[in-house]
Specification:
Length: 200
């Protein structure tokens, strides 16, 4: 079992990249009243056949030849179910794959979310030709990081340039802290990135 959920998300996103996705969306949502945390990873990659979907949660099943055991999806499922939560996977060949894990986050077996800013900057750094969206919501206070918007803002500066990655890391870290604690001046609930001024 991984030590934090962000590492599991990194592994799942790598599956999307290997599935030739051009866009990967990662979403984290926390509902404090319901004590629930949900994480979803969606891509527009090659997708899977029904048979592959049926077997993908099996830790001994993998379509990859470089690793005999595919553990990312089984761990994602197990980590949610150990907290009394749930797991769902949907995929269609030629269209992409969507995974969603829901956690009861006050459960004794709940893993920490971990450093999502590092997960996202790692993915962007290594895969500059792929677009990533990271969306975070806590009780209606939300923000979104979209590399397509950042590419427009930065012009000819590569998305994986050191200064751009530092900007993305700070943007995610700061806004996630504010969304978690809106009383300190976080985003207005429901305000999308396109209507905010902290990227200019």
């Amino acid at each position: 079992m991984m030590t934090e959920l962000s590492l599991n998300v990194l592994d799942i996103a790598q599956n999307s990249i290997k599935a030739r996705a051009s866009l990967v969306r990662i979403s984290v949502s926390r509902d404090t009243a319901a004590r629930r945390l949900s994480i979803s990873v969606e891509d527009n990659g090659c997708g899977m056949t029904p048979e592959q979907v049926e077997h993908v949660i099996d830790p001994f099943f993998t379509t990859r030849t470089t690793r005999k055991v595919g553990l990312g999806v089984p761990f994602f499922k197990l980590s949610a179910e150990l907290t009394g939560g749930s797991f769902r996977i949907q995929s269609r060949e030629g269209e992409g794959t969507s995974l969603r894990a829901e956690y009861c986050y006050d459960h004794i077996d709940m893993l920490p979310l971990g450093d999502m800013a590092s997960t996202m900057t790692t993915l962007i750094s290594v895969n500059p030709d792929i677009d990533f969206v990271y969306a975070f919501d806590c009780d209606g206070c939300s923000f979104e990081m979209d590399t397509r918007a950042i590419r427009e803002l930065m012009g000819e500066v590569p998305i994986n340039a050191a200064e751009v990655l530092a900007f993305i890391r700070d943007f995610i870290t700061g806004n996630q802290a504010e969304a978690d604690h809106p009383e300190t001046g976080g985003p207005v609930p429901g305000t999308p990135l396109s209507e905010r001024n902290d990227m200019v």
